[in-house]
Structure formats: structure tokens, C-alpha cells
Automatic annotation (TrEMBL):
Gene3D superfamilies: 2.30.30.90. It comes from Sphingobacterium kitahiroshimense. The keyword Iron applies. This is FeoA family protein. SUPFAM superfamilies: C-terminal domain of transcriptional repressors. It holds the Pfam family FeoA.
Length: 79
């Protein structure tokens, strides 16, 4: 069993499975975009200077950019 971590800890090219969203303040848009427990994601780009993270949601082949502050509340199981 691997250690759980938050999405902001991943490096470019790493994949992970979303385990949980650790906040009640997450907007519904995250669920609508596919950030659901069990979803596999891959980090495509990380902007410098604490900028956004671009993610590929593997199942739908969607590219989505989110803030680091939002990524911190997404709990993942790294692959």
C-alpha cells in the first residue's frame, strides 16, 4: 500500500488515482470536470512561481488547469 499524498506534490509526468477531496469548499465544477474518487490523472505541465498545474484526466483525455491551492485538497494515491 502506498502513502496517500496531495495532488500538488506530484511532478510533471507522474500519474495518480484520486482518492478523496479533503474539503467541503470544493466547488461543484471539480466534480463536473471529472475530479472524482477513482479517477486516474497525469500531470502534464507545472507553471513556475507557484502557478497552476495542468492535468490530463485519462478517462476523458481532458486537459484541465487548476490552482496549487486547489490541488492541495485533492488526495491522491501516486502510481
Amino acid at each position: 500500500m502506498r502513502d496517500k499524498s496531495s495532488l500538488d506534490k506530484l511532478k510533471k509526468g507522474q500519474k495518480a488515482i484520486i482518492v478523496d477531496l479533503n474539503s467541503n469548499d470544493i466547488p461543484a465544477k471539480f466534480y463536473e470536470m471529472g475530479f472524482l474518487p477513482g479517477t486516474e490523472i497525469e500531470v502534464k505541465h507545472i507553471a513556475p512561481l507557484n502557478g497552476p498545474i495542468c492535468l490530463n484526466i485519462i478517462a476523458s483525455n481532458s486537459l484541465i488547469a487548476i490552482r496549487k491551492s486547489e490541488a492541495k485538497v485533492i488526495i491522491i494515491d501516486p502510481k
